[in-house]
Fold this protein.
Amino acid sequence: MQPRYRSAVNSEVLPALAGEFYPIRLGPLAVWPPVVLAPMAGVTNYPFRRLCRRFGAALFVSEMITARPLVEGNAKTLRLAGFGAEEAPRSLQLYGVDPWYVGEAVRRLVGEGAVDHIDMNFGCPVRKVTRKGGGAAVPLKPNLLRAIVRSAVVAAGAVPVTIKFRLGIKDGYLTYLEAGRVGEGEGCSAVALHARTAEALYSGSARWEAIGELKQALGIPVLGNGDVWEAQDALRMMRSTGCDGVVVGRGCLGRPWLFRDLSEVFAGREPPDPPCLGEVADVMREHATHLATWFGEAAALRAFRRHATWYTKGFRRSAELRSELMRLGSLAELEQLLSRLDRAEQFPPSAMRVPRGKTSGTQVVALPDGYLDHLDDATPPAEGETQEDEG
């Protein structure tokens, strides 16, 4: 039977050949296929990770957790850091700008047996983070970056630590090669590069050539992030850059079956046809139910609204459908709405590569006053790690 859809962009990309790619080695962990779910605030909670995992085995990272409130026992932070009973490996992304708090947070997580892998965030471009000297601002100060990473790696012991960063804050302040060298020098198991600057946010095309540069410069695994919308994109990235794996973010929003497709192409097979609307509705129902079990029904439906927009993008009457989804007050109402859909409607080809999630243009990166005046300074920014960063 002929497939309903094949991407014109990737029509000449062949599935992986036997022995072409290998698992990502992170200490005792072997990640296969070489695919990592990117941490995304308000998205990669346990219910979403559980759903993605069902579609394909890989590494699924939690949303960003701030070190200081974790150390101080903040209830919201502890909830965000939670894992499902069956979840393995347990991968958590940690954010921090003070080596002491980062070390204490890692010691707590490792000492409690809470994690199997820790990823450090040095790429967040959000204004409220960078204006305090955090996220993408940290690699501007390599000595501070080095102190934070060293503290995490020492405290982690046998638990692998990775770091994720961007090209830099903007052209003229590109820091990715130095950040990679710091990660390698301080004992990180791997590094991941989102091949955009903080100034670019999520606009334009990811600069995959920089991923290749970083791979050539380092002797540890390098993961590439940016513009993996379809499974074949992962193969194109790895073949063109030589990187060891891919990090998938916006490409799986409203399409968690992307991990199934990735598993298929890395096994040497063509990805299956996209799901019809009935299959999408089944995934939506499953996702909302997981959220309700984890957060309670009212909070779950509020959290599900953004996902509903992503799931339905491109289908007929999608604007009207999303309007109804935004007003839902219970799982029973969701069930009634989903039952009215045309289950046979095919997935729209035009929606395959439409960006979901953050799509805003460029920005002027906010930094603390005088931050660029002393780039050799290793002093943690005074307000770089507060509980409000959890928002």
